Automatic annotation (TrEMBL):
This is LacI family transcriptional regulator. SMART domains: HTH_LACI. Residues 1-53 form the HTH lacI-type domain. GO terms for molecular function: DNA-binding transcription factor activity; transcription cis-regulatory region binding. Gene3D superfamilies: 3.40.50.2300, lambda repressor-like DNA-binding domains. The lineage of its organism: Bacteria, Pseudomonadati, Pseudomonadota, Betaproteobacteria, Burkholderiales.
Amino acid sequence: MADVAQVAGVSAQTVSRVLRDPAGCTPETRERVEAAIRSTRYVQNLAASHLASNRSMTVAAVIPQIAASVFAETLQGLSNVLLQAGYQVIIGHSDYSHEREEDVVRSLLGRRPDAFFLVGTRHTDAVREMLQRAAIPVVETWAWTRKPIDQLVGFSNHEAIAAAVAYVQRRGYARPVFVAAARPGDDRARERLEGYVSGMARHYAGQPARTVVMEDLPYTMGSGRVLLDAARTQFPDSDVLLFSSDLLASGALLACQRQGIAVPRQLAIVGFGDYEVGRELNPGLTTVAVPTVRMGEEAARMLVQRLRGEPVAARRRDLGFELIERGSA
């Protein structure tokens, strides 16, 4: 920093101020310091800075799976807002395991993040206790609960799939089946299963809630074909399949085309999530759309407000969902 100050013709304190709060410096001073930083190839020692300020300027994000595009979209929204406020995101993934989430949270807490972002609202008691003891802002997403750890930005998976059941009933489908690849820790898939059962009781009174749920399948389009075959074998008279995600539904729709099953005339298909792949299929995938990017953006804004000591209007924000009707149902 002293080298940068010498090249820029300013004090080391001015260099520190430009790095810490560039908007609070005059444009001329900022430009001189930034030019000196580029010419000297200076990289700030953030560890020392954070030690002095007791702030790491990081937010820890724990998601179920890095490969899932929907969580990547939410992280993109989160990161876009946090970067503008000077915060970086560090990521851990639970692989749909509550025990692994506990290990990840413990490890990330050791790096002293300023806040936490979590996908889901169901955690072990140890996770809740660790985060409450840390006394830092926490926001949970991608679900809904009456008792969040701290803050909540999400929607009701239960009500979303129940709305899909109501939709297929209005469209005249008589024998719906819920289909999912739900690993033991995939709480959102199980909330959708519960919503399906509730929707069936509400809109198909007296008819059993028929389901095909496999725990040992990977979360891929190929698993959609496996689930389609299982559903057709177990319930050959089904006229509509409601999948727990668009990825599985898209794989099933493509498998129908390969097997000569006319969609939606012989079998209708409904997904969940409004993935890009579902929009590009022919026929397009009817689905429940959720605000993946906006969830991340809203969560980030809430965290930044808390970290700046500003009041937050509401600690719980229900962003809702939308049923998108396309050709598959």
